[in-house]
Amino acid sequence: MCKALLFYVPRWLWKNWEAGKIHALMMDLDIGVVQDVEKRQKKRLLLDYLADNLKHHNWWAYRYFFCEFLALVNIVGQMFLMDRFFDGAFLTFGLEVIAFAEQDQEDRLDPLIYVFPRMTKCTFHKFGTSGEVEKHDALCLLPLNIVNEKVYIFLWFWFILLALLSVLVILYRIIIVISPKMRAYLLYIRFRLIRREVINTIVKKSYVGDWFLFYMLGQNVDSMIFKEVMHELARKLGHLGKDFSDT
To answer: Has UniProt tagged this entry with the keyword Transferase (predicted)?
Structure first.
């Protein structure tokens, strides 16, 4: 139960830090069919917020990145906790299983038996012919361990996969933070309706936190409405291009 709660901690933190910000800024603009008057009013409110609060979203974005890093820490920590629980056998568990599968059938020794023994010595107490309690030693099969070994093999590979993906996410975030060109490129390939020069202007005059907010909004707001908002924002930021309000 505690392990499951630890996995939920990053999500819980972000839900509290985000506090419905994206949903509030959407203002039902994810619906493409909106009355013109209502759409113009909501677009103006969104545009005014983005322009007035430009360069003030870094702390908000960094807290999201921190939650991603916390997810990686949690996975690594869970693996070490399990390794401690299994007396140092969990970290190399999957590697030993792979090595065991590649060995000759006559020579190989199943490493799972050391962690999850399938048979053990049992002592039974029962009444004998004289009426006294007698002890009988026997070998007992542990069917639950046969299931447990499969479960923990899956968990080992699942943790390794999650750790690798989390490391890639952290590297991806580092590149985004240090490279404005990468931020512009990602916006361009994700939102093709927005002109490249508009994206370049916005990225040049904003911070990584603003980029993260734009990216999140673009995924939740109607594509045409988001394009219009970004074009208007570029104008406010001094973009000197031709009129593209209806392109």
So the answer is: no
